[in-house]
Amino acid sequence: MNSLTIRHTRPLHADTSVPDPHQDTYSKTVLGFWMYLMTDCLVFGSLFVTYAILHVNTFGGPSTHDLYHLPTAAAETVMLLCSTVTCGFAMLAALRSEKKHVVFWLLITFLLGGAFVFTELREFTHLVREGHSWTQSAFLSSFFTLVGTHGAHVTAGLIWMLVMMVQVSLWGINVMTFRRLVVFSMFWHFLDLVWIFIFTFVYLMGVS
Fold it and tell me: How many CB atoms are closer than 10 A to CB 10?
């Protein structure tokens, strides 16, 4: 199977006025997922605004400069950026209908994403054990909510990735699995973009 089999083709003598059902479904799926991403942008935008307002309200507790560990955040950034690259490799393999390569690159992406979530959970656990939980101040409540919401999205992406690896392994690269890979790739790249804003706006500005 080559990449042309992903698209629905018809004979040259076919009536070109008849809509392509596969292409129509693909377009609606991508458009619908873009609309979902826009609503997610509103969610994260609201959380960023809330954090910007509340990050100075420490209630006499530690500030951003006292709590943030920049090397940890930088390591998380590298993990997520690398996972975005490997996700792109998976999509390139999907265009060539290379099922084994798709599963391989998705597995690497999963491991990098899992390492990101593990590091983030370890950071949260350390803060809570030090007595700096989300209940201590408005600043920490906004921090845990913003970063935790992103982490929850990444966790959902990891579950989605596992499902895609199983489906590609069983069914190969067809119209349905390729469409799902495309929307998953959009979601994963979106999370990477959001994290870049978190790293810059929360961590870099917080320690400066």
Answer: 10
Fold of 21-207: Four Helix Bundle (Hemerythrin (Met), subunit A) (1.20.120)
Instruction: Convert the pLDDT of each residue in 190-207 to its tens digit.
Output: 999 999 999 999 999 998
* Entry pTM: 0.86
Q: Which long-range contacts (CB under 8 A, 24 or more apart) does 58-62 make?
A: 58/137, 58/139, 59/136, 59/137, 59/138, 59/139, 60/137, 61/132, 61/136, 61/137, 61/139, 61/140, 62/132
